[in-house]
Amino acid sequence: MELESIDGIRYLKVDSPQEVIPYRAGFVGAYQMIFREPPYSERFFPAEAEAVLQRVLQTPGHITLLAVSGNRRVVGFGAGVPLTSRSDVHRDMHGLLPVQHTFYLAELGVLPEYRGRGVGSTLVRKRLELIDRQVYTHVLLRASVRHQNIWEMYKSMGFEDIGVYQEVAARRVDGQVRTDRRLFLSRVLEREDE
Q: How many whole angstroms separate alpha carbon 123 and alpha carbon 130?
């Protein structure tokens, strides 16, 4: 379903594996390219990138958005899931956030040549608009501590550093597995009736 079109980029909400079929190859290529770049410098094989997409699409309550240029070129993506579906993250949040009422913005990526054009902030804004405020009171995300530009975007959107970090191991483009420190940012969601 098309949510909006801005400057030739269509923002699509995809709800099922069937809806994403025309964009699957574009997503896989974009995912590999985006995370190959610093600060992540991670290597994902096509099957791994596709598995990320399929896992999100199979999570009840997910919000998955694609930014598409032309007919099928995926230039960005954003996905979110209920925090309870991410045991690797929610165990670190007990006592800090109401886990049952927190939505997790799990993925965000924009191709390098489309950065600085508002694609990333539109993907964040659209996901925030789609979160069910009757269920969720908080939203959480994590970003590399080496990605200052993304912090600034999130902070301008009301996210705050909650002082929690997580070490994430990943295969780098040179083939070695190393950890990357990720910072958690959170925001309280306004209720729809406010």
A: 11
Q: Report how far residue 90's alpha carbon sits from residue 192's, in angstroms, rounded to the nearest whole number.
A: 25
* pTM passes above 0.70: yes
Instruction: Return the residue matching tokens 């791994």.
Output: 48
Q: What's the number of CA atoms in the CB half-sphere (13 Å) around residue 194?
A: 7
| All residues at 6 or more sequence positions from 9 whose CB lies less than 8 Å from its CB, including other chains | 67, 68, 69, 75, 76, 114, 117, 119
119 in helix, strand or coil? helix
Whether 108 contacts 119, CB under 8 Å: no
The SS3 of residue 68 is strand
Among residues 136, 146, 149, 143, which one has the least CA distance to residue 164?
A: 143
The model's pLDDT over 1-57, given as tens digits with 9 standing for 90+, comes to 888 899 999 999 999 999 999 999 999 999 999 999 888 889 999 999 999 999 999
Q: What is the distance between the alpha carbons of residues 67 and 7, in angstroms, rounded to a whole number?
A: 11
Q: How far apart are the first and last CA of the chain?
A: 27
Q: How far is CA 112 from CA 104, 122, 143, in A?
A: 24, 16, 17
